[in-house]
């Protein structure tokens, strides 16, 4: 949108027919951006990346890996390998299984992994929720700006048609 010489208060009254104090904070912010000629801010991904710390990025990576088929398949292979090694296979080499059935140490390791992985994945989900809220706010601003620009163009067209009507009436008055 182009820079306008109107204040946010004037834009609000002209386009929405209301006082600036009567609109919500989001609409007020959009009107202020339009009046200043400011373009859209960063999108949801950019804004989230600007505020992401090391822990946030780590949580996102853990969630990405932990929620993939590659992880599930690799983890299944590790579990199967653990059970295979701790069965009778080691006894053939004269060794005793270090975690024989019922695999108590494996159970402990799985419980510890779940205890750590679950909150980390929840942190990542919370960050995704924040990104979704930012994206929704961004979409709302785009929609509101579009609606305001359509209203502005509609009013300009009305003024143009009124001017053309006056011109046509003046020509008809001259001809008669």
TrEMBL record:
The chain crosses the membrane at residues 62-84, 104-123. InterPro entries: DUF1003. Keywords: Membrane, Transmembrane, Transmembrane helix. This is Cyclic nucleotide-binding protein. The keyword Oxidoreductase does not apply. Signal peptide: none annotated. It comes from Novosphingobium guangzhouense. Pfam families: DUF1003. PANTHER family: INTEGRAL MEMBRANE PROTEIN-RELATED (PTHR41386), MEMBRANE PROTEIN (PTHR41386:SF1).
């Amino acid at each position: 949108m182009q820079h306008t010489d109107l204040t946010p208060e004037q834009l609000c009254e002209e386009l929405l027919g209301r006082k600036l104090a009567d609109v919500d904070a989001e609409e007020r912010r959009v009107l202020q951006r339009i009046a200043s000629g400011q373009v859209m801010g960063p999108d949801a991904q950019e804004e989230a990346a600007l505020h992401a710390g090391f822990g946030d990025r780590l949580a996102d990576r853990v969630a990405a890996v932990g929620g993939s088929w590659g992880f599930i398949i690799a983890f299944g292979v590790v579990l199967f390998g653990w059970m295979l090694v701790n069965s009778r296979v080691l006894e053939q080499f004269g060794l005793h299984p270090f975690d024989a059935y019922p695999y108590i140490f494996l159970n402990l390791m799985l419980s510890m992994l779940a205890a750590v992985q679950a909150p980390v994945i929840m942190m990542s989900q919370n960050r995704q929720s924040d990104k979704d809220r930012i994206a929704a706010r961004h979409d709302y601003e785009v929609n509101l700006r579009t609606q305001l620009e359509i209203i502005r163009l509609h009013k300009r067209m009305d003024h143009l048609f009124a001017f053309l009507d006056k011109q046509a009436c003046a020509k008809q008055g001259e001809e008669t």
